[in-house]
Amino acid sequence: MPRRAAARPETHTALVRQARRIYRTLIAQYPYARAELDFESPLELLVATVISAQTTDVGVNKVTPVLFARYPDAAALAGADPAEMEEILRPTGFYRAKTRAVIKLSHDIVERFDGEVPGRLDDLVTLPGVGRKTANVVLGNAFGVPGITVDTHFGRLARRFGWTTSEDPVKVEAEVGALFPKKDWTMLSHVVIFHGRRICHARRPACGVCPVAQWCPSFGEGEIDADAARKLLKYELAVPKGGEAHVGLLVDGAEPDASFSTGHRGTPTVPRHSGLA
Ligand code: SF4
User: Fold this and answer.
1) Over the stretch 18-43, which tens digit does the pLDDT of each residue have?
2) pTM (2 d.p.)
3) Closest ligand 1 atom, residue 219 Cα
4) Which domains are seen in the chain, by residue range?
5) Which parts of this chain are annotated as the region Disordered (predicted)?
6) Catalytic one of 98, 133, 184, 257
7) Are 139 and 119 in contact (CB under 8 A)?
8) Is 183 a catalytic residue?
9) Which residue of 19, 122, 136, 229 could cross-link 209, Cys pair, CB 3.0 to 4.6 Å?
10) How far apart are CA 234 and CA 231, in angstroms?
11) 153 is in an annotated binding site
12) Cα dihedral sign for 143, 144, 147, 153?
């Protein structure tokens, strides 16, 4: 572990170099990083993303198989009986509002896009309840179009890394995008969000076990003692089919976790994070 926080790079070139070191290290730490919502089509990912507001992806992944078995396409979702859909979505919270949002969104997809989710940012953001964040999730993961997803984790970490000072997601997206080749944007979003969920928490980042600590200008914002930091790592994911997965922590000299899959519904998903301790 470093003794003090890394200096903020003074030139754009130095910032790019430092940012890419962090990215490479996060890839090695989270080689399995992906969208944590399960889906089998752009529509499923879009709807799952809408449902994921104010709840965990794990919780969403529990209800979407039931939802999409009952309503397999946009027309079926648009014509759903609200009371019936509410019962399915109830465990995710705010289920009445989410039901209204899913039905309205699906209705627009049927009416304006012939039942197919559009594959362009400009079209996606015209759908009700779909902002740039959701659009980029869908483009990056269901259409293979590179996109930076600025959610709460990404924005926080981008500021901690010194990649931006902005709180405006659109500016964060542009400033971070300028540091990385476009082809890396989607994976960058995944690994940064994974890191934010698992180690670089909002309140008490676990700096003492952070694999990118040596390049981080915010090292020391959180717990720097390794033992105390390890106790902060509580993130859990669903246990993949096939059993328990091991998670190694690069910072301790362990192997990175390689027990993963692509994670679409019906396959084993990402590994269980059991505290990394
Ligand atoms: S956990 Fe600490 S050292 Fe690691 S990225 Fe977050 S603030 Fe920086």
Assistant:
1) 999 999 999 999 999 988 899 999 99
2) 0.80
3) 3
4) 12-35+147-252 (1.10.1670.10), 42-116 (1.10.340.30)
5) 258-277
6) 133
7) yes
8) no
9) 229
10) 7
11) no
12) positive
